[in-house]
UniProtKB/TrEMBL annotation:
Species for this entry: Adineta steineri
Keywords assigned by UniProt, alphabetized: Coiled coil, Glycosyltransferase, Membrane, Transferase, Transmembrane, Transmembrane helix
Protein name: GT23 domain-containing protein
Gene3D superfamilies linked to this entry: 3.40.50.11350, ESAT-6-like, SH3 Domains
GO molecular function, one term: alpha-(1->6)-fucosyltransferase activity
GO BP term, pick one: protein N-linked glycosylation
Highest taxon of the lineage: Eukaryota
Domain GT23 as annotated: residue spans: 196-482
Region of interest (Important for donor substrate binding), residue spans: 352-353
Length: 681
């Protein structure tokens, strides 16, 4: 009876899913009427053929490494996608997706996942109250719902393959990464002697495990980036390697070392000292605006457009620089890659069993992990119906018995991993170089996986997720945590904004209005999150789907010597003669005696250089036009910020004085040589 009493509920949910499915599958569908350059297509076709040939050669050559095969496969996929984009066969090439489009695309996936969490939880609660006969029928309803949810997610994830923007995403990912790595290299290796710049020191030997220590150093490095101070790392006697950090990873700096860390002040006590030490986040007295989880304001718009979790991407870039492996470690990981015969697609699971269970984390059976592994592979199959896929799982754990348990219960899966690493990760043998090699190996292979299932209460899980972002294009969604949401030790409040009002239904919930700022404490993965509305002194549970993440943005050090477009070191112009600022476009424009006009953004990063005929002495910006006075006292009108010449003095039918013009809100007034005033709207 209960089953049929809930028939309307099931029908409603089904209609909801079907409607959302049709919305998403038709989202951004545009007819193809654009033709690309034939030469570009021919070039890509030749590159594709060459890659195919190289790939076949590596497969037939026993001496070729498995690692190289995988690299060629990825490159082959990239070129195929570019070929499709350029030829217009399946997609329409576009330059840059709007911020709103990228945010909406991600929001649809988040909402679909939250709907699945909630509905599954509610259906399971109903199932527990049914008779055994009705439970069987109800199980079919649950399975049907789950299957339609997976089809929906497959359609959402395939949007990036057909919307025409994937080539831009790949380019922007590489461009931003290059910019960040150049900035970090410039930060850590200043052009001045290191003793002449303000610097920061950090000590790795915090009383905790590897993941905790690395995140402590990352916390220091985040502050170093924000302040523009090179970080000097103290690691002598490191419990994981007595010889220090530099024997495992490349030195953070070629010019700044521990001998330059003298007259040290604790940051909280003297922030302006030449040399400051960053204590553990646990002991900081206050949080600055730029501290985690903030991202730099000058790249925030690009980063929010590119990635679903901008801070994770930013942290991944800091980690990419800091954890550059020594040559021996690169070789060790490559040999292990070939020994494992590591292949994709593959899902990584990190299973904690020893010291943290019962204190920092709860016990999770292997079935809890494999539920989401199975979901991933079914969705992958729906995304790629013509591909036969072996279901692979990489296991990282501190309990060797997990391997036997997984292989016994899930014989249709191929499990990768190393029992010896699991043994070395146990409490009695955790510290030392051999144990460290095992941890590094696990983190490396977890980060190479296509999807992660782990517990965010684990530092290793979070490091693997952060490292994954260095390789994937917007990999924010490629994880399922069994406990916490992502966090960073010592962070500001995790804030969300309510975009739908909520009225509490149950006693454990709290109400809020649209626009309320919620301090999120965790997601229960059942449709509800826990948090508080501090402004109204309320706390409890709330529907996760009614809020959205707030990205914390903060002013940090401006790396003005690095070109934000090319990611290369640039030099400032000399001999400036005149300047103006366009408030509407946030551009600062200046002329130089070398005959160039320099256009900077609001962070004083060079955006455009326009060459003029000799020095210019008077400039202004009005309605997307740039007015330039030349050395011959002529007036030129150029497009802004492009710089193309639109008009010169001949346009005005009489001589004008380039040094006599001014702007109002809607017009530009120009003085002529015979003492007349002309007005342009």
């Amino acid at each position: 009876m209960f089953f049929f009493g809930n028939k309307f509920y099931v029908i409603f949910i089904s209609i909801w899913i079907i409607a959302l499915y049709f919305i998403v599958t038709t989202f951004h569908s545009i007819s193809n009427n654009d033709k690309s350059s034939e030469k570009r297509i021919e070039f890509l076709q030749n590159e594709l053929n060459l890659l195919r040939q190289n790939y076949r050669e590596t497969q037939s050559n026993p001496s070729s490494t498995h690692y190289l095969w995988e690299e060629l496969k990825h490159e082959l996929t990239r070129v195929k996608r570019q070929l499709i984009d350029r030829s217009g066969a399946k997609t329409i090439p576009k330059q840059v997706p709007s911020l709103e489009y990228e945010q909406l695309r991600r929001k649809i996936e988040t909402q679909a996942r939250e709907l699945s969490y909630f509905t599954n939880n509610e259906l399971q609660k109903i199932s527990e109250k049914l008779s055994e006969n009705d439970k069987f029928k109800w199980k079919q309803v649950i399975e049907r719902f789950n299957d339609q949810s997976r089809v929906l997610l497959a359609s959402i994830r395939n949007l990036t393959n057909v919307d025409g923007y994937q080539s831009w995403r790949e380019y922007e990912h590489k461009s931003l990464s290059k910019l960040m790595q150049t900035r970090l290299n410039s930060l850590q290796n200043p052009s001045k002697p290191c003793t002449d710049v303000k610097r920061l020191i950090c000590k790795i030997n915090k009383d905790c495990g590897y993941g905790c220590q690395i995140h402590h150093v990352m916390h220091c490095f985040h502050i170093a980036y924000a302040l523009g101070r090179p970080m000097i790392l103290f690691s002598e006697g490191w419990q994981y390697n007595r010889g220090g950090f530099d024997q495992i990873f490349q030195s953070p700096s070629h010019t700044c070392n521990t001998s330059m860390a003298y007259n040290v002040s604790i940051w909280d006590q003297n922030e302006t000292a030449d040399v400051i030490e960053i204590p553990s986040a646990d002991f900081l007295k206050s949080l600055k605006d730029f501290m985690p989880m903030a991202i730099p304001e000058d790249v925030s718009e690009r980063l929010i457009r590119l990635h679903g979790n901008p801070f994770v991407w930013f942290t991944g870039q800091l980690m990419k620089y800091l954890l550059r492996p020594q040559a021996w470690l690169t070789q060790f990981l490559e040999e292990k890659y070939n020994t494992l015969k590591f292949e994709t697609p593959i899902v990584g699971i990190h299973v904690r069993r020893t010291d943290k269970v019962g204190t920092e984390a709860a016990f999770h059976d292997i079935s809890e992990y494999m539920k989401y592994v199975e979901d991933y592979y079914i969705i992958y199959k729906y995304q790629n119906p013509n591909i036969n896929v072996s279901k692979r799982v990489y296991i990282a754990t501190d309990e060797p018995l997990v391997f036997d348990d997984a292989r016994t219960k899930y014989p249709d899966y191929i499990f990768y991993g190393d029992k010896s690493v699991a043994k070395s990760a146990q409490v009695n043998s955790r510290y030392g170089t051999e144990s460290l090699k095992g941890v590094l190996s696990d983190v490396h292979f977890l980060s190479l996986c296509d999807y992660l299932v782990c517990t965010f209460s684990s530092q290793i899980c979070r490091i693997a997720y952060e490292t994954m972002q260095q390789r994937t294009i917007d990999g924010a969604w490629r994880v399922q945590s069994l406990d916490d949401v992502y966090y960073f030790g010592g962070q500001h409040d995790h804030q969300q904004r309510a975009f739908i009002s909520h009225k509490a239904v149950k006693s454990k919930e709290f109400s809020f209005e649209r626009g309320a700022i919620i301090s999120a404490e965790g997601n229960h993965w059942n449709g509800f999150s826990k948090g508080s509305d501090k402004a109204n002194n309320q706390s409890g549970l709330y529907p996760s789907y009614k809020t959205e993440e707030i990205v914390r943005i903060a002013q940090m050090y401006h790396y003005s010597e690095i070109n934000p477009i090319t990611g290369s070191v640039q030099h400032s112009p000399t001999g400036l003669t005149d300047a103006c600022y366009d408030k509407a476009d946030s551009h600062f424009v200046t002329c130089a005696q070398n005959g160039n006009i320099y256009v900077f953004d609001r962070n004083l990063d060079l955006v455009k250089r326009i060459r003029c005929d000799g020095p210019c002495h008077c400039i202004a910006v009005h309605k997307r036009s740039l007015f330039v006075g030349t050395k011959a006292n002529e007036l030129e009108v150029r497009s802004f910020p492009g710089g193309d010449l639109l008009q010169n003095s001949d346009y005005f039918n009489e001589p004008v004085s380039a040094s006599a013009f001014c702007l109002s809100n809607s017009s530009v007034f120009i003085g002529t040589r015979d003492f007349k005033i002309m007005m342009m709207n």
